[in-house]
Every structure is written in C-alpha cells, then in structure tokens.
Specification:
Elements: H1 5-12, E1 25-31, E2 36-45, E3 48-57, H2 60-73, H3 78-82, H4 86-92, H5 102-122, H6 129-133
Antiparallel strand pairs: 1-2, 2-3
Helix pairs in contact: 1-2, 2-5, 4-5
The structure holds FE2/S2 (inorganic) cluster.
Length: 135
C-alpha cells in the first residue's frame, strides 16, 4: 500500500506546525525503534481545545499523523480528544502502509501526554483520565 492522497497532502502541507509558548499542556513522544520524536502543545478554554500545534522530527507518515491529529482535536472537549486513538488517526488519513502504522502512535501519544500534562497542571481529580486510554 502506498501513501493515500490525504497522507501526502498532510506530509507536504502540514497544518498547525509550531510550538505554543503559552500552552496549557505539552506532551512528547519518541519512537526508540526509529528515533523519531514529536512534541504537541495545546491551549484549552472551557474544557475545549482551541489550539493544538506540533513539532516533529520524523518521516512523512509521522508529519501527516501529527498534522491530522491537530486538525481532528481542534474544537473538541478534552475528554473527546483523550479518546482519539491511533486507529482514528490512521482512518482519518485513509490508511497507512502496515510498516508505517507505528508512526501514528507518535501523534496520538504526544497528544495524550499533552492532555495528561493539562490535567496535572489543573491538579484535578474530577477526571479518571487514565480510564479513557484503556482499551
Ligand atoms: S519512521 Fe519513525 S515515526 Fe515514522
């Protein structure tokens, strides 16, 4: 399987590249197997993600998955964003070649880590956020 048009589009014209200095949460994820790395920053107002940006050092699939992840979660509540799975990211891209599926973990995990950071900063125990990540 080759890259879909959507993957190519997001890899060549990535959306929301950057680092939000005034972020409410920041998450990172690295893949030890390939050495790639993603950083996701988010801004949250009234429990909704109003902005998400990423920086990545990685392959085209990693760029595309990070890019589409920021698009998918914009405007979502933090709980909806926490439910975004690797599979959701892959589906939104129209699929990825089997040997590139691991690249999608970078984006979703960096996002989840940013949400975790957000919740830690708020020091709230109202959310059982870990439950959201459980399969
Ligand atoms: S090969 Fe490392 S994330 Fe794609």
């Amino acid at each position: 399987m080759e890259y879909t048009e959507t993957v190519r589009d997001h890899a060549l014209n990535p959306r929301n590249v950057g680092f939000i200095q005034e972020h409410d949460g920041r998450g990172e994820c690295g893949d030890p197997a390939c050495g790639d790395m993603a950083v996701m920053t988010i801004r949250v107002r009234n429990e909704r993600l109003i902005e998400a940006k990423f920086l990545v050092r990685g392959c085209g699939a990693a760029i595309a998955t990070c890019s589409i992840t920021t698009e998918l979660v914009k405007g979502k509540t933090v709980e909806q964003a926490a439910r975004l799975s690797d599979e959701d990211v892959v589906q939104a891209l129209g699929g990825l070649p089997a040997h590139k599926l691991h690249c999608s973990n970078l984006a979703a995990t960096a996002l989840h880590n940013a949400l975790e950071d957000y919740w830690q900063r708020r020091k709230t125990d109202r959310h059982d956020w870990q439950a959201l990540y459980r399969p």
